[in-house]
Write a structure and sequence with these properties.
It is a single chain. The protein is of the alpha+beta class and 114 residues long. The chain has one domain: Orthogonal Bundle (Arc Repressor Mutant, subunit A), CATH 1.10.10. It contains 5 helices and 4 strands. Strands 1-2 form a two-stranded antiparallel sheet. A two-stranded antiparallel ribbon has the order 3-4. α2 crosses α3 and α3 packs across α4. The longest helix has 13 residues. It is globular and about 60 Å long.
Length: 114
């Protein structure tokens, strides 16, 4: 995990007009940056900047895929499952639930679903 976001960081990320649709699109299935740009109506540089921010807080993961011609390309999948924001006299706190990202955790989750 890179860095756990503060509640303020998380609210700022989720307030971004491009980060939200990127997360939604990447939740349905892994997608390339080009596919995410088309789904979100954003330019590729904008999508890459948001992907960097989302990856910084482990809200999205990058995987390398191989196409039919043997070329490598990246796909992105949201790891964010749920966010809980709490407020008390000390301020805001955030609790983030994520999908497992390593192969062993994904296999365990798949096995438990069977």
């Amino acid at each position: 995990m890179s860095e756990e976001p503060t509640a303020e960081d998380l609210l700022a990320i989720l307030d971004d007009e491009y980060a939200r649709p990127i997360l939604v699109a990447a939740t349905a299935e892994p997608q390339s940056a080009k596919e995410l740009a088309e789904a979100c109506g954003a330019s590729l540089p904008t999508v890459y900047r948001r992907l960097d921010t989302l990856a910084e807080y482990d809200l999205i993961t990058e995987r390398t895929e191989l196409d039919d011609n043997g070329h490598h390309y990246s796909t992105y999948e949201a790891t964010l499952q749920a966010v809980a924001i709490e407020v008390d006299e000390a301020g805001f706190t955030a609790d983030v639930s994520r999908e497992p990202t390593d192969a062993a955790d994904r296999f365990t989750k798949l096995w438990e679903e069977i």
